[in-house]
Design a protein that fits this description.
5-stranded parallel β-sheet; Rossmann fold; about 350 residues; alpha/beta
Length: about 350
């Protein structure tokens, strides 16, 4: 879906004009990381623009400190009990702001009702084809407005304060950052709620615990055989402690579990410190990709072409579960041998 506005010759599309721009994306962490390339392109091509973002709590967390000209967040939860009242207030606020452009990276047409009082040029993603990454579609929406063909990978920043917190965590857990650090991310959003929801998430994102343990042991053996010093870690939330403990036990302590106090900025710094991350299709996969971390990413059902990290090809190796005889296996169809072979290309 796209707006029918032709802004190529419009004064509103001039980078020299003073602009106030609204960017709209409400989603989980990975969804928000995927718009960072488009957001950076907006900021770099409308150099005087003040940018506001309509998003959810995860969006504010991800984009906090992204750029000094990102000055306002409107928080929106469509599932809130008083969502109708929030929509009413947002529609009024957006109408009162003198926006020149609204970039809506949501595909649900109901969002357009929020802008009905605005005089801004409204730009909405075209129908998103599954063979192209969603981040790419967002970029094309921006490119049409600025009449360019810019490609910008997803990107996030890590502050010096966050790096210091991460370094302190490594030191307190006797982890030597001079070693090759391999991170495992065996969890995924909603894991603890599986009894209350469809098991589709487990099918798509749940690599078996035994496989996580085995890859840790195999990686340690490979490092020993090749005289490479590695440290395998899991940086988990408290709610994932039991999962982590089982993997540590099955791996015969080949992997070290960390459960520090949750701090999103510190967590970003820790992901950036990893030399390699093994992860299913999760928010941390997108965060790590935006920070330049090398990855082996596991996919089932969803295609990495559409929902994988929007990063240079040499930065990560996607592995897709393809078992036509047993499609119910999901991510479990990816073998430990396949993951190990993919990791070897990055370990040095």
């Amino acid at each position: 879906m796209s707006s029918s506005l032709n802004t190529e010759n419009s004064d509103k599309s001039s980078p020299d004009k003073q602009h106030k721009i609204l960017v709209v994306r409400v989603g989980r962490v990975g969804d928000m990381v995927m718009i960072t390339g488009a957001l950076k392109t907006i900021l770099e091509n409308f150099k005087q623009a003040e940018v506001h973002v309509l998003t959810g709590r995860d969006g504010k967390r991800v984009l906090n400190g992204f750029h000094p000209r990102l000055t306002q967040f409107y928080l929106y939860n469509r599932k809130s009990i008083n969502a109708w009242w929030i929509r009413f207030k947002l529609k009024k606020l957006i109408g009162l702001e003198n926006y020149t452009h609204i970039f809506c990276f949501e595909t649900n047409p109901s969002y357009l009702k929020l802008f009905s009082n605005s005089q801004a040029d409204i730009h909405v993603n075209q129908s998103c084809t599954p063979d192209k990454n969603y981040a790419w579609h967002c970029l094309q929406t921006v490119n049409k407005v600025i009449n360019a063909n810019i490609n910008e990978w997803v990107n996030l920043k890590v502050t010096d304060q966050a790096k210091a917190l991460s370094d302190e965590m490594f030191q307190s857990n006797n982890i030597d950052k001079n070693k090759f650090i391999i991170g495992l991310h065996p969890s995924f959003s909603g894991l603890k709620k599986l009894k209350l929801r469809s098991k589709r998430s487990l099918h798509e994102r749940g690599w078996p615990e035994q496989s996580w343990a085995e890859i840790a042991m195999r990686l340690q053996q490979y490092a020993n055989d090749n005289n490479i010093e590695i440290q395998i870690i899991m940086d988990l939330l408290e709610e994932d402690r039991a999962l982590g403990e089982r993997i540590v036990s099955m791996s015969k302590d080949a992997v070290k579990m960390l459960i520090p106090p949750m701090n999103f900025e510190r967590y970003k710094a820790t992901l950036q410190s990893m030399d390699l991350l093994i992860t299913p299709n999760t928010g941390p996969m997108h965060i790590a990709g935006a920070l330049g971390t090398k990855m082996v990413a596991l996919f089932a059902v969803e295609s990495p072409d559409n929902c994988g990290p929007y990063i240079p090809a040499e930065q990560y190796q996607p592995l897709v579960a393809e078992d036509m005889l047993n499609p119910e296996l999901g991510l479990a169809a990816i073998s430990v041998n396949d993951v190990l072979d993919a990791c070897k290309a990055f370990i040095h």
